[in-house]
Amino acid sequence: MTDSRPGPRAEPAAPDQPSAVPGHVAFIMDGNGRWAVRQGLPRQAGHVRGVERLREIAKASYEWGIPVMTVFAFSTENWNRPGYEVQVLMQLFRRYMIREVDDLETRGVRVRFLGQLERLPEDLQRLARQTEARTAANDRMTVQIAVSYGARAEIADAARRLAAEAAAGRLDPESIDEAAVSGALWTAGMPDPDLVVRTSGEQRISNFLLWQAAYAEYAFVDECWPDFSRERYRAVLEAYARRERRFGGLSPVAVAR
Ligand code: FPP
Q1: Which residue owns the Cα nearest ligand 1 atom 10?
Q2: How far is the centre of ligand 1, averaged over its atoms, from the C-alpha of 75 (Å)?
Q3: Using CA positions, which residue lies closest to atom 3 of ligand 1?
Q4: Hey, whose CA ends up nearest to atom 12 of ligand 1?
Q5: 172 catalytic per annotation
Q6: Under a CB-based contact definition with an 8 Å cutoff, are residues 109 and 138 in contact?
Q7: Closest ligand 1 atom, CA of 85?
Q8: What is the Å distance from ligand 1's center to 35 Cα?
Q9: 83-107 and 43-64 helices cross at what angle (nearest 10)?
Q10: What sign results for the dihedral spanned by CA atoms 154, 159, 164, 166?
Q11: Is 30 known to be catalytic?
Q12: What is the three-class DSSP state of 108?
């Protein structure tokens, strides 16, 4: 018997549906400041545009059926920026969460935060936890927001927690394998990214998902984040679909020889 209930994927495909979609796309949203300066605007105007772009890119991911999307919104190193710019970014995060949470909740989007959240202003920590709790049961798509995030800090935190478990006699050190480390990271339970996209022409990883992106494909695009359009995103996905991922093995052609 056919199950005719409308499932989460039952909506008609978007007219610009890419030919294949990865299970997890992660973004380093770089170039907001440069974009603004090039337009003769203050740097914060670039961040404001960056939020609009994030909404558009998240919407595209949702419509194309990408199950997980992660964005690098604020790094542990970004705390060293001038106080005013940090405040502008915190205010944008605040506004974004307040404005978007109802919509995300009703659309079935789960939101998770990755990072040293204890360094955020208290009201933002509360908002982050509330947003996570309100959307925890959603399963149509997961959006992970990396804020006050650094991959080395995340790995150090995982090592510290595993060591504490071992010292307390609850964990055999010999049993610590790759799965155990993955399970102790802030991304525990989530799939690794298949594709990492960095905007603004920089070709660096900048302490982002170092463990999780070990086998990811990378796409470095020249546009600054505020100019990274849905069309450009689609082109990146089409290029990704043409790549062959071997995970350290041989290609099928080489195996046949
Ligand atoms: C990098 O551009 C971008 C950031 C440090 C912040 C990214 C944040 C957003 C797009 C805001 C939205 C996020 C959420 C979750 C609401 P840059 O300032 O480093 O640019 P530059 O390299 O040109 O100086």
Answers
A1: 50
A2: 10
A3: 30
A4: 51
A5: no
A6: yes
A7: 18
A8: 10
A9: 20
A10: positive
A11: yes
A12: coil
Sheet harboring 68-75: ordered strands across? 109-114, 141-149, 68-75, 24-28, 195-198, 217-220
pLDDT tens, position by position, 100-145: 999 999 999 999 999 999 999 999 999 999 999 999 999 999 999 9
What is the identity of the amino acid at 43?
A: R
Q: Report the predicted TM-score, pTM, of the whole model to 2 decimal places.
A: 0.91
How far apart, in Å, are the Cα atoms of 34 and each of 39, 45, 227? 9, 10, 11
Q: Using one digit for the tens of pLDDT, what is the confidence trace for 230-243?
A: 999 999 999 999 98
Helix (H), strand (E), coil (C) string for 202-234: CCCCCCCCCCCCCCCEEEECCCCHHHCCHHHHH
pLDDT reported for residue 13: 83
Distance 37 CA to ligand 1 centre (A): 13
Structure tokens at 153: 């800090």
Number of the ligand 1 atom closest to the C-alpha atom of 36:
23
Q: Which amino acid, one-letter code, is at 178?
A: E
What is the token pair recorded at 181?
């480390």
- To 10 degrees, what angle do helices 83-107 and 122-135 make? 20
Which two structure tokens, joined as six digits, stand for 50?
């960056």
